[in-house]
Every structure is written in structure tokens, then in C-alpha cells.
Design brief:
The protein is an alpha/beta fold and 337 residues long. The protein is 39% helix and 14% strand. Strands 2-1-3-4-5-6 form a six-stranded parallel sheet, sandwiched between helices. A six-stranded parallel sheet has the order 9-8-7-10-11-12, with helices on both faces. This is Glycosyltransferase subfamily 4-like N-terminal domain-containing protein.
Amino acid sequence: MTTTWQKMLHLGDPAFTATVLARKARDRGYDWKVIQWARTPVHSSPLATKAHRAARGLAWEVRFAATRARYPLIHLHSALALPHVKWALRTYALHLHGTDIRTQQYKPAYRARILAAIDGAAVVYYSTPDLRAHVVPHRADAILVPVPVAASTTPLGTPAPGLAGRDYVFFASRWEDVKGGQNQIDFARELRRELGDSTAIVGIDWGPNSGQARAAGVELIPKQAYPDYLATIAGARLAIGQQSGIMGASELDSLDLNVPLVMALNPDWYDGSAPSLLSPPVLGGTAVDPADVATLARLTRDALENPTPADTHAWVQRHHSPSAALDIVLEGYAHYL
């Protein structure tokens, strides 16, 4: 049966969500296409950067216009992008992923643009439960689409040099305030005291707080291509999630690979209001505060000393698989488009 959303054009691809959704949709016989936003490298000359940006922007507009003629509906993955594509929009879905709705909407320079995008959308989706408080006041009908991950179906690459055959725990997120900031550093320092030299503590050399992580005893590795990053996660005895109270793609990748995950979850977000928000299979969870690094470190040590196999992959497949996410998106289309 042909539907009005048989052909769908996705603009933008935060956390590869559009790519994952489109790939699964094509598996089901839909014709969905993804166009990334134009990106311009920074040149030493501001004038060169400006000229390059203009040229790239024009090339993107030409490509978008040509593609738009073949795809009657648009799934827009950024509220901030509305002015660039408004001329081509009729009916569209809007997918909110973070910065635009969480931060930028409260800045006068962006607020009107973002609220116009929300108001004009036929259906609004958001990707993580912390965004609910920022979205629902504007759209009570907004729909949570849990972040889809495909780690278990991605061929693993090569772990970071020097890790093969070693016992290590892995901090899966970058070192940044939005990921937990000082709580991340305090957790790493406490974990170093708790574990001594028995197990290596590894993290990514990424983020403004990475120097503090190194000083706290974390062995930092360079950023990796996604398949290699997954191999590094898969080789860990245990993964450490961000200390912001919410699971992102990195944490979900760990669970999809059946690597135990230690992290605190915010009970205001993981409140059972959606199936994916009811008792995620993490160590700590809503019972621990992100600032209680002593308890989190003890949980980590206990999990290393008394490992208990758990099929966290099955939970991810139920709630965060590409298929599960696509089902929710299609339900929204069916109801609103």
C-alpha cells in the first residue's frame, strides 16, 4: 500500500538518526533520502571562509531544490534551519535533537525562528526525555522517539592501540559540562582510588575537560571512526556513562553490545512515562545521584569483582533499535500528516 510518506526527504542528520531511520525505512520498501547540512571548513582568511561558505551554500540549495522536486514531504532535523528551507516547505515533520530546543530557544536572536518551526510543523518529535520540558509547553502533542542505535549490526573495527587483551573500564562520552562536567572528573578520580592499579581507566581525548580527566588518572585515546570506537567499547569490561542523568548514543551503544553500563539517571526523566523510560538496565540508574561518585565507584568495583551477565542488547532492541524508532515515527506520520 502506498502512503503519502512513501517518499520522504530528511534534512540534517544529528547523531546519525536520519541515516538510521532512512536505512530501516528502505528495508521496508520506502523511498527515503537524507541530505546533510552544508559544512564549510575554516580557512586562515576570514574572507576565504566567507566565500567558501557562500559557494557551499549555493551548491547545497541547488541540490536541495533538485531533490525536493522528487520528494513531496520533508522531515526537518533542526528548528534553526527553517529560514534556509522555508520556501520549499508545505507539510513537514520537525525532529528536535538538543541544542536548538534546549538552549537556543531561550536566546532572543533565535526564539522566534525556533517557535515558528515548531508551530508550523504537522508533527513534532524529540529525541531524549530531558527535552520534554522544553518542547511540550509549545507542542503538547510532541512525540518522544528514543535515539535509535545500530551498534550490534555494525561490523566492529579495531580497538584503540594498546587496549587489546587488557582489562579496562571505558568512559564512553566526551569530557564536557553538558556530559556531566565536574561529576565526570570526580567520578574518574574516585574510581582510580577504588580500583588502584588493577584495572585501566580509559576515555576519549575529546572535550574541554579532557586535561582534567588525564590528571584524574584516565588513560586517554584519540577519537576514532565509529566501527573502531565500537570495538573499544566491546573490549571493555564495563562502560561508564555520562554524568548528566541521561543516556545518549554512546551509552546505548554500550548496552546494545551487552557491555555493562554504570551511570546515574535522572528520575524526573526516567519516570516510566514511555516504555523506554521504565527501568533501563544500567547499574546505578535512578537510585543514585550523579554527584554521588563514591557510590558509583563502588558499584563499578563490585560489578568488576562479581560480574553478572545481562542481556542489555534485548532491551535496546525493544526500545532503541532502528525498527522501534521507525515504528514510532510512522505512527506520528499516520496520525498527523
